[in-house]
Amino acid sequence: MPLTPQEIDRAFSDLLSAIRVEKNSKRVRKIDARFYETYREAYESLSQEAEKAASGDIDKYLQLKDRMRKFETEFSTFFQLRYSKILRLSVYRIENEDLEMLTDSEKKFLTSIGERTREQFLYISRGELPKRQKEAIPPEPEKIDIPKQKHEPESPDAYTLVRIVGDQPPIAQPDRNYFFRDNDLVHLNRKFAELLIKRKSAVEVKLHQ
To answer: Between 20 and 30 A from 187 (CA), which of 45, 48, 138, 171?
Structure first.
């Protein structure tokens, strides 16, 4: 439900007061639990009024758009002041006194950034990769040895068309690494294809002429 003009004025006044508090304090100070929600409601109310005025009252429309820009500018100032302090908290041991000053959304942000800061510290000081990065490292390509053959001119019969069964791990071969996905249709060196078929990683596809 849109806010009344009086409620919008009060939201703007609260925003300016919060900026003064943040400027005059080195530590994060407590704000109302609905501070961010109220700001969004006020801004959205102005936006809705501006849309209504756009088709009939251009002067009112311009006034509302100017008010919205002021809201954005002041909120940006508040955000920079407050969140620069919250970011500093992430590199120190967080005291309960500081946590009590934060809204629920700010606590979630601090927890998230604190975990990343700790991961960065461990990486720089000990060379430890974060767990999510360890899990993202692709497996080493699986090596499959194919018996060496005398070099002879290859004919079309030297290759076999196969259909891959299931996603396969990377497979290293002398010419390159192969990355197969389920149901891929590929022409492969006959010996290589036979090994995959034997492992039930592929089935031969016969073309009828």
So the answer is: 138
- What is the residue extent of each domain of the chain? 5-133, 142-204
CATH-assigned architecture of domain 142-204: 3-Layer(aba) Sandwich (3.40)
pLDDT band, very low/low/confident/very high, at 172 (cuts 50, 70, 90) = confident
The CATH fold assigned to 5-133 is: Methane Monooxygenase Hydroxylase; Chain G, domain 1 (1.20.58)
Whole-structure pTM value: 0.58
Q: With 80 as the cut, is the pLDDT of residue 207 above it?
A: no
Q: What is the pLDDT of residues 127-141, one digit of tens each?
A: 777 665 555 555 655
On the question of pLDDT at 4 being above 60, the answer is yes
